Amino acid sequence: MAEQIKCGVLGLGRLGYWHAENLASQVRGAKLVNVADPFGDAAEKTAQKLGVDNWTKNPAEILEDPNIDAVIIATPTSTHVEMIKKAAENGKQIFVEKPLTQYVHEADEVIEAIKKHNVTCQVGFMRRFDPAYSEAKRRILAGDIGKPIYFKAVSRDPGAPPAEFIKNSGGIFLDMSIHDYDVARFLIGEEVTSASAHGNILMNDFMEEFGDVDQALTYLTFESGAAADIEGSRNAAYGYDIRGEVIGTEGSIIIGSLKHHDVTVLTKQGSTHDIVPAFPERFKDAYTIEMQHFIDCLRLGEKPIVTEYDGKVALEIAAAATEAFKTGKRVKLKTAAVKA
Amino acid sequence: MAEQIKCGVLGLGRLGYWHAENLASQVRGAKLVNVADPFGDAAEKTAQKLGVDNWTKNPAEILEDPNIDAVIIATPTSTHVEMIKKAAENGKQIFVEKPLTQYVHEADEVIEAIKKHNVTCQVGFMRRFDPAYSEAKRRILAGDIGKPIYFKAVSRDPGAPPAEFIKNSGGIFLDMSIHDYDVARFLIGEEVTSASAHGNILMNDFMEEFGDVDQALTYLTFESGAAADIEGSRNAAYGYDIRGEVIGTEGSIIIGSLKHHDVTVLTKQGSTHDIVPAFPERFKDAYTIEMQHFIDCLRLGEKPIVTEYDGKVALEIAAAATEAFKTGKRVKLKTAAVKA
Amino acid sequence: MAEQIKCGVLGLGRLGYWHAENLASQVRGAKLVNVADPFGDAAEKTAQKLGVDNWTKNPAEILEDPNIDAVIIATPTSTHVEMIKKAAENGKQIFVEKPLTQYVHEADEVIEAIKKHNVTCQVGFMRRFDPAYSEAKRRILAGDIGKPIYFKAVSRDPGAPPAEFIKNSGGIFLDMSIHDYDVARFLIGEEVTSASAHGNILMNDFMEEFGDVDQALTYLTFESGAAADIEGSRNAAYGYDIRGEVIGTEGSIIIGSLKHHDVTVLTKQGSTHDIVPAFPERFKDAYTIEMQHFIDCLRLGEKPIVTEYDGKVALEIAAAATEAFKTGKRVKLKTAAVKA
Amino acid sequence: MAEQIKCGVLGLGRLGYWHAENLASQVRGAKLVNVADPFGDAAEKTAQKLGVDNWTKNPAEILEDPNIDAVIIATPTSTHVEMIKKAAENGKQIFVEKPLTQYVHEADEVIEAIKKHNVTCQVGFMRRFDPAYSEAKRRILAGDIGKPIYFKAVSRDPGAPPAEFIKNSGGIFLDMSIHDYDVARFLIGEEVTSASAHGNILMNDFMEEFGDVDQALTYLTFESGAAADIEGSRNAAYGYDIRGEVIGTEGSIIIGSLKHHDVTVLTKQGSTHDIVPAFPERFKDAYTIEMQHFIDCLRLGEKPIVTEYDGKVALEIAAAATEAFKTGKRVKLKTAAVKA
Q1: What is the distance between the alpha carbons of residues D97 and D122, in angstroms, rounded to a whole number?
Q2: Which chain A residues contact residue D267 at CB under 8 A?
Q3: Residue in chain A lying closest to D21 (CA)
Q4: For A246, which residue in chain D has the nearest alpha carbon?
Q5: pTM of this structure
Q6: Largest CB tally within 10 Å, which of B100, B105, D221, D297?
Q7: NCBIfam families from the xrefs (chains A, B, C, D) (predicted)?
Q8: What are the sequence ranges of the domains in chain A?
């Protein structure tokens, strides 16, 4: 078996902390050696809590440390381009949270850097590693539903993020539906050729100021003529609701359910089970599994199943959907070039 | 196609009225020509409401009317023996509500009368006609679960009947679990060889006076070695709960669910659907289908799938379970003789 | 209680026959006195089978018969305008299958005729009477999910109809999604203000010849800013799949499920229940209940909950969706005028 | 926060290995310092795989090591009495797999030793820590179903263990239903006062030689008059099936379901999801959580929620059920004494 991968985590917000925690405990073959966060005492506290030997307020200390094999980039999206390029230049293996970068042209830059320095890059589309989504993929590959021809997705947050977040989020298509754009490609197994999009503000009037909406619908077409519709919503008063369907020529797969605890309470008011309240409860395992996949790939010299290319393509779809929403017109995509 | 079957209904309590209503409207090949009930104006009102030409307070008017082909006996159980014998003597075809009679020795009398006068008799075990139970039987016969080896049943009422009813009910094993005894024979496809039984009063202390319980459990064995456990309960505060499972050597069938309307409401409190509140909502279709089966059998000269013999066997099992409950001992059954 | 309503059925295709059967047996307060169909011996056979005294090949015999109170129009859509006008002129109460007419301008004509002759008209949007949809409406009115802000519908047929049908169907938006347009208005409780639409041929290449698609998506907006997305599909290899969701400010309602028999089979291959195979199994009760509603309204002098106006509005939405699909542009609706 | 608890694992069969793995990675506050197994190279291999510094073939090395704080006893049941007593004498904190001991009198011995040496003991009834069971307990304590009056349990293995295992298992009541006896006490919140039991061989004739059965039913009564029925089975050809229900005076709780992956496949054959195949998939989390509870209790100086007393009581119920099964008579329990 290969050596342990020495890792540093950059950015200790909620996701960065989870990645650090997973690397410190659950992930086999990894050793968390340093954590960085410029704000307050986040790095120091994390290091203490997780038993990590080093911490710093300066990401460069990790990016330039010759003792570190791989970096996990969980800093704000606007910094991804710089972080990834520096990491590549220093020969670090890279795990970067989604989206890969804020803009498509930045994605080209980081792809070039990654190629030039011959490092590995995995993008944090954790749904591919969720046991339900990966089982769906397995069933599709097994031919259980014939050829996939339609994908339908519902992603609903239990409420809107604060204005501060919405302001810098890039809009619902980039911030939220991007997960389903990636999953659509993953499950249909083809590239997207066009995007149409609609959206409205149903509950959160404050979003108007930022040109954003709390309810979005994207219609995608694929190379073979397959299609997809993807709903993104900030309006699920009842909980966190992530579901998908893949319709094939011989059957269909439904992914996900609302059930949280495996307990049902029967009273005069009816039969009730609780609903997954938020994304940690829904995707906790997926975050662990994606990080294990990253480490396993590094140790085995294999390519992750979701790379910087997938990061860029999802970004292009999100940009096309955003444009389609703003112009009211269908926007064509030229993703074929990416794969070349 | 044969002539229409001219029917008379005896006893217009809830079930009798339903049978009358079904015969007056939904059942093909039947004509309801008379209804009888000794109490108040039940017969007159029913005749008016359903557009029936005749009504009477005297069952004998129907039992002796040469113009009537078939009678539906929905009078109190204690009168069944007399009603069935008179009906048979007058050459009437007979549908009788469960239980066939109150005592096993009475069952022998009516079986003799039915045989002697060569009439048809169907007993009102409507569950055999419920779409879920009959689909389960079909799947078993299709071999989908291999050989059936165990039956498990839950029958829970949403509350206890009044003391007046309990007093004359014959006890929970005879009044309630008898449905599952019949279904057990139907689904396992074999005769019962022994019964053990347990029971306790969990909520309704008034039952102690009548030697009855509100929670009962029967354990049955079958000829081939198969077994069953059957729960009967008056304590389902949440609704009417009828479920069954047939375990086979290669799989299992689960029958029934709690869902009433095909609607689920999601709120912060969870995901809720309403529960079947009582037996009419659960078995309305079954009552219609069983009556259609009775009429179809008469017109086609065929034997119903559930006859006086099944009525007697279920009664014997109920008697054995009651004895087992009272003595704390396993009681053996000699049903083989019945079939001869 | 009022007199029985004497009814005649025009057109004895599948739906016309069902309506006739329901009127002949299940519907209280109605008497089926004549049935008409120009093709072969459909009318004669139906009359014999259902015990109807008269039959004819000529609809005019029914439309002009002074003895008939109400007509059920289940003839081809292209004949609706003529049939409804004649019926109104003859003072007949009218039940007409959906769509009300083929074109919006025809709808105006029939609305005028109905108004002029002061007759009642109910349109066959049976989903409003389906126990699941009407329970959903009840729960919304009860405030269980707050204010409805989004409607999501899936309607999938288990396969495409033959080319002959598609040719004259008016396209998937008019033929299929129109049910969901009506339900969307019913459940959201507002008028639609715009329609956008997308569609592709995923499996049935023959549809290209007719400018139709087998997969359609409509995005609607409503007066208050609410929105909806509605999928119509001919590609559900697995069965007949009708589902809906109403998202409200405080919760959500899911309508419908795929379960057919209330039986689940467990084997090494997993836990399996069968799926509703086609629309009769799904909506049989709804057809009976809508006809009962029509007859009840006539007897009580009340207005049906779904009239010629609803028929016209649904037609307008379907026309707008079709135009939106063809032009790739959002089409605004002016339905407010209709209500005036 | 307290020091890390230094642990040694005795017995590296499947469960012992899991406990070792959990202690080596997931459990916070624990350090696995030694592992013991007398057979082959199990200890050496486990130490290498999990990165444990020491291994041994001799349990005494761990039991007598002053450097070790706590031992996890996962050796054969027949050795528990000796292991626990030695551990207590050496002042070790104890986690012992269920059952506590093979015989009730041995349970008394170990309870005395534990008391004398003032050590903590947790018994491996992991179901109490399963998220579904613990949520059920929480809901009961919250009063959501009123007062619990009945418990119903189904525990079905996907097949019978080999003859070699059955021979030494103590029978189905001790080996299998003991989990539900403990859960029944946990959820009802009372002591058991009597046990009745039934059982048959439905599929595995070889069990006759050992006086064991593959299908068992236990009926329990509780101090307040509550009751329970508990099915244990080796005959679930379809998978691993663990379910429970707690009926209360105001509602009921259903615990567990059969669903494995959160994916449903729809085909012409129906709607299918896969079933939990075996106990690791069902209870993996529970094993981790129970070990975390053990370590947390040691660090916080608190008493585990399931101790040697619970281990003894469950053993007494299993012994009573076994006797009831053999004699055909109800067996009373005197568990009140235990608590004193």
Answers
A1: 9
A2: 144-145, 250-252
A3: A26
A4: D265
A5: 0.94
A6: B100
A7: myo_inos_iolG
A8: 5-119, 128-283+314-339
